[in-house]
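Notebook p. 47: complex prediction with zinc ion.
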Amino acid sequence: MYLLYLDESGLHASPYFVLAGLAVFETHTGPLSSEVDHLLNRYIPAPARVEPLRATAVRSGSKPPWDQLRQSSRWSLLDEAYEVIRHCPAVLFGVAIERAWLPAGEDEYLLAIESVARRFDGYLQRRACAESVPQRGIIVAAESPFRQRIETLALRIQQEGTRWGDIGNLAEVPLFTSAANSRMLQLADLCANALHARYVTGHARHFDRIAAQFDETDGVVHGLWHASLDYQTCPCPGCLTRRIAGQDPTARS
Ligand SMILES: [Zn+2]
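Predicted complex, structure tokens below:
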């Protein structure tokens, strides 16, 4: 069983909405969570293991315990956290939707989570073929104001069998849990923040560290979808590899 942990970024006045995270085989979640605990224990005093790691909180340093750290230490902590993602046995998925691109009436969160779900499903299908063993997946999303929308969607799927009905390898509709209690969701938060910074401000320091971890096959980075007005010229790995392969960068799955 693979678990795909997702978090979003760009909730308010941002020109982008981002949903991103990491897919991990079930036996890898424990060691990866411990690795994050050990990292935090080197920066903040015990009991660091109960302290949530959120990219925006660490970066701003305005609240405890992050206000106890110098800016250089907080940046170093974030750099190290992205190195954990870079070297862990996880595959990344992310969708960055430019709000100016979004068709009128389209729900950005539903579009994003359906797109991620289809990409995750494609990954599971390839894993199953490669290993000759069926692979199932569950999406675990951070609690957010979108929960009700997703639950409404899930109900509609059950009733109508549409939209996600052809996604065969996902065992459940998304589960929701608090990011404060899940190191894996906190790593998903880091992924979403890295994408948001890359696409909104051009600050690619953290995105570049993890860019090679997005699901990729046959030279196309399927795990990263950038829905943008500039898709014909954008140099990001999602747009560029699709153009080179002759695919439409705006295709939704
Ligand atoms: Zn792009």
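Notes: The beta strands are 2-9, 16-25, 90-98, 137-142, 175-177, 224-227. Residues 95 and 225 are 5 Å apart (CA to CA).
Next step: compare against the earlier run before touching the bench.
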